[in-house]
Amino acid sequence: MKTRECAGYFSNIAQGAAALGVAARTKNPETKSNAIAGGISAIVAGITEPALFGVNLVYGKPMIAACIGGGIGGLISGIAGVKGYVLGSSPSIFSPITFIGGDSSASFGVMHGAIFGAIGGAVTIVVTFVLSYMMMKDMKDKDENSAKPAEGT
């Protein structure tokens, strides 16, 4: 039986969690709106571009948080031997169902991959969100100054 890597799953949900960490920290309504929309689309649908290009790369630190959180989730799944058995669509929070299968003699039977994939995903979300929130402690919104009208206009 062929298996596939599950790294995209952790990467996508980490991007979303990092954007949600920015949303929780910012006071700027436009940044908050963009971060919430990007975070939800990355976690639920696996569409990371709004979170990645609209928030995480703009501020930089959330991208670092996403790399760390996704790496920790991937480490947990790698140690547990999580494998994907079904080619799904874009990796999202629903991806652990693609990890069902394999050797029934594993610790949790055929659900082993799904259980540890979900655990790794939960750890990824929590670690990334907390790191992103903490790293943005001294956040100065990039659009904070642009929201004010320029002097003389």
Notes on the structure:
With 153 residues, the chain is mainly alpha-helical. The protein has one domain (7-139). The protein has helices at residues 7-25, 29-45, 49-59, 61-80, 112-135, 144-147. It is elongated and about 50 Å long. Mean pLDDT is 85; it is low at 145-150.
Number of domains: 1
The largest sheet, given as strand count, sense and whether it forms a barrel, is:
none
Beta content comes to under 5%
- Order of SSEs: HHHHHH
- How many individual helices? 6
Alpha-beta content class: mainly alpha
Shape: elongated
Rg, alpha carbons: 18 Å
Distance between the termini: 67 Å
Low-confidence stretches: 145-150
Helix content: 55-70%
Number of strands: 0
Question: Which secondary structure elements does this structure contain, and how are they paired or packed?
Answer:
Layout: H1 7-25, H2 29-45, H3 49-59, H4 61-80, H5 112-135, H6 144-147
Defining key terms:
153 residues, mainly alpha, 62% helix, 0% strand, elongated
Brief summary of the model shown:
62% of the residues lie in helices and 0% in strands. It is an all-alpha fold and 153 residues long.
